[in-house]
Amino acid sequence: MLNNDGCYSLHTDITNATSGTITIKASVPTTNQVIVSVSNGEVTIMAAINVSLKPALEENTIRVSEAGTLAKILEGYDKNTITTLKVIGSINDNDIVALRILPKLSNLDLEDVYLTSLPRHAFSQNETLISIKLPKTLKEIGSYAFWRCKLTGNLIIPTGVTTIEMCTFAECNKLTGNLIIPEGVISVGELAFSNTYYVDGGSLTIPASIKIIGNSAFPSDLSPVYCKAVTPPDIDSGSFSNYSKLYVPLNCAEIYRNASGWNKFESIEEVEF
């Protein structure tokens, strides 16, 4: 209850059958301190309590000047208010841990950070993260990095990535658009996109740079498949068992029809990329 003097009073029943009034008043000029006064009309007990209130992150952007210090920076803010965050600067595996444990983070932009390798299990089984922008400097995406995340929308893998390890995006069930593996990627690990469901069933593009594709690496609901490699990449015999149409470079259809694993496609046609 707000009193005429600007104090808040709370009337409460005490467990020993007595009663009293608790009055809480901000101390002036001390910051982050309240005075608690308990009175039964005859006796008054007062105590000063220091209150630590952390501000919300209003700009949604944090600059990290030294890799490994993000956790310390975040200590200055109320983490429960951080739902959208852009990070700028250099970060490392310790900073990824600091991001992973933010309880309500749903939109994360790492596009302008310096990070070459996203560690194993970076955000695996994250229940709140639905949008991610990966670093432009990224070379390797570690195994299980986004396994069983709730990612939605169009997944963009940065140009410059060379390795996508096993189960990286496995069981992400709400993606949309087309899955484009960018030029420069050499290997995609087994089950990398296994059981990853594209809501609108887009296409799959595999770059000319690809050399190795692991077993069951890609979602089975994407069609058609465009493979730009002149020489069929090494794949497991069952990697494309459930796919129907494949487009390959000019003068390469016959090579693919005779290549193990690739010959599982019902239709293989040539196209100019």
Question: Short summary of the structure?
Answer:
It comes from Bacteroides acidifaciens. This protein is mainly β.
Account of the 3D structure:
- This protein is mainly beta and 273 residues long.
- It has helices spanning 70-74, 93-100, 253-257, and strands spanning 8-13, 19-26, 33-39, 44-50, 61-64, 84-90, 107-109, 113-114, 117-118, 131-133, 140-141, 152-154, 163-164, 174-176, 179-180, 187-188, 204-206, 212-213, 225-227, 245-248, 267-270.
- The protein has 2 domains: 8-50, no CATH class; 116-270, Leucine-rich repeat, LRR (right-handed beta-alpha superhelix) (Alpha-Beta Horseshoe), CATH 3.80.10.10.
- The protein contains 3 helices and 21 strands.
- The strands form 5 sheets. Strands 5, 6, 7, 8 and 10 form a 5-stranded parallel β-sheet that branches.
- The chain is elongated and about 100 Å long.
- The termini are far apart.
- 29% of the residues are buried.
- InterPro entries: LRR_5, LRR_dom_sf, Surface_bspA-like.
- This is Leucine-rich repeat domain-containing protein.
